[in-house]
């Protein structure tokens, strides 16, 4: 009986070509399938939104609306794909062909959530880079229609795992509006009795034609810390162009920026709210060669432009208070 019901469930949740799914077979079990089937029953919207088994047998929300196609994993509440209809359904986000799809590992690409610290944790070399939010299993709270868009909300909160790294008591909700724009809202509530100080970033991997032929507009004259040069403070001169490893944290800026990609005949606009830092990163060839979860030459196919609050712009949140950082991606054809 078990194998039959597993086969039946597989037909429902695994698309035609299961080979598309990395690590599916070894991780898939009846409990996962049953849990995913139950999520789809509770939250799915026929023809618009479904919950299925994605890479690594991880639960994944799929959006197929008139405005866009998209994917979001419960692992890290991570958006991994967004294809707005107005742009020939072209993919906007980069996803590494060598990404890991396992518990405890970050998905390489899409939009990882960095929280409650950014990069390495101060004074703790054992702590996971960029915090623990992107490797936690989040809870799917709702999938709602909002005009023609779909709004997916996922939640996580402090628990024995988070307290191992950080004493803060918190609830995080990642509310994503999938439509002709992609709107990300990360809402942190301080559920404890002491002030929380945390860093955060929506670490967006934009898909680009070739990093050597794109630029970022909107940061002229903004001061930044250059992480490839001992975090020296510098001033941006004109558009940001890329000729080597770039890892810049632009400070005290809430400005909208644009990723200009003439070869792909598009610009990707990032507008922000409640975000005072913008991080721009590409590892370039040498650094990328050390990243086992990045395919060959893929270093040239993405550029991270991140709405964030890091370093001196970290957030201080009083007990009972809430902080909401917002990033809105818009694609325009050239
Ligand atoms: O956002 C830029 C950055 O902080 C870089 O310094 C680099 O570490 C990058 O994040 C990637 O981090 P990850 O842990 O995802 O490999």
What do you see in this structure?
By secondary structure, the protein is mainly beta. It has one domain: Beta-galactosidase, Chain A, domain 5 (Distorted Sandwich), CATH 2.70.98.10. It has five helices and 23 strands. A nine-stranded antiparallel sheet has the order 6-7-8-9-23-19-18-13-16, with no helix packed on it. Strand 8 and strand 9 form a beta hairpin. Helix 1 packs across helix 3. The longest helix is centred in the first third of the chain and has 14 residues, at about 30-45. The chain is globular. The N and C termini lie far apart (about 55 Å). The model is unreliable at about 1-5 and about 10-25 (pLDDT under 50). The protein binds 6-O-phosphono-beta-D-tagatofuranose (TA6). The site of 6-O-phosphono-beta-D-tagatofuranose has 11 residues, from strand 20 and strand 21.
Question: What is the fold's blueprint, element by element?
Answer:
Blueprint: H1 2-13, H2 24-27, H3 30-43, E1 49-53, E2 59-64, E3 68-73, E4 78-84, E5 113-114, E6 139-146, E7 149-157, H4 160-165, E8 170-178, E9 182-190, E10 196-198, E11 200-202, E12 205-207, E13 215-217, E14 223-226, E15 232-235, E16 240-241, E17 246-250, E18 257-261, E19 266-273, E20 277-282, H5 284-289, E21 302-309, E22 315-317, E23 322-333
Antiparallel strand pairs: 1-2, 2-3, 3-4, 5-11, 6-7, 7-8, 8-9, 9-23, 10-22, 11-21, 12-21, 13-16, 13-18, 14-15, 14-17, 17-20, 18-19, 19-23, 20-21
This protein binds 6-O-phosphono-beta-D-tagatofuranose (TA6).
Residues 106, 119, 129-130, 203, 227, 247, 279, 281, 304, 306 line the site of 6-O-phosphono-beta-D-tagatofuranose.
């Amino acid at each position: 009986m078990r194998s039959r019901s597993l086969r039946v469930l597989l037909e429902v949740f695994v698309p035609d070509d299961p080979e598309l799914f990395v690590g599916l077979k070894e991780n898939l079990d009846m409990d996962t399938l049953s849990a995913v089937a139950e999520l789809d029953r509770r939250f799915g919207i026929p023809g618009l939104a479904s919950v299925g088994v994605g890479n690594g047998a991880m639960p994944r929300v799929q959006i197929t609306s008139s405005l866009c196609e998209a994917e979001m994993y419960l692992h890290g509440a991570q958006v991994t794909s967004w294809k707005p209809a107005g742009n020939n359904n072209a993919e906007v986000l980069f996803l590494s062909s060598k990404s890991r799809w396992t518990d405890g590992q970050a998905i390489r690409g899409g939009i990882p959530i960095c929280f409650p610290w950014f990069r390495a944790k101060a004074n703790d070399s054992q702590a996971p880079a960029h915090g623990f939010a992107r490797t936690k299993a989040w809870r799917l709270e709702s999938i709602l229609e909002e005009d023609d868009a779909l709004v997916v909300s996922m939640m996580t909160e402090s628990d024995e795992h988070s307290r191992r790294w950080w004493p803060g008591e918190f609830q995080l909700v990642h509310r994503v509006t999938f439509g002709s724009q992609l709107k990300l809202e990360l809402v942190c509530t301080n559920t404890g009795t002491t002030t929380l100080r945390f860093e955060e970033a929506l670490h967006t991997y934009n898909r680009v034609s070739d990093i050597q032929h794109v630029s970022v507009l909107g940061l002229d004259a903004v001061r930044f810390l250059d992480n490839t040069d001992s975090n020296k403070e510098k001033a941006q001169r004109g558009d940001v162009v890329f000729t080597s490893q770039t890892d810049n944290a632009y400070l005290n800026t809430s400005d909208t920026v644009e990723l200009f990609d003439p070869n792909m005949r598009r610009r990707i606009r990032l507008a922000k709210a409640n975000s005072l830092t913008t991080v721009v990163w590409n590892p370039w060839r040498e650094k990328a060669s050390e990243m086992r979860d990045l395919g060959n030459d893929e270093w040239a196919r993405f550029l991270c432009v991140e709405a964030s609050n890091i370093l001196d712009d970290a957030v201080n949140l009083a007990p009972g208070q809430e902080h909401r950082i917002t990033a809105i991606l818009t694609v325009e054809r050239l």
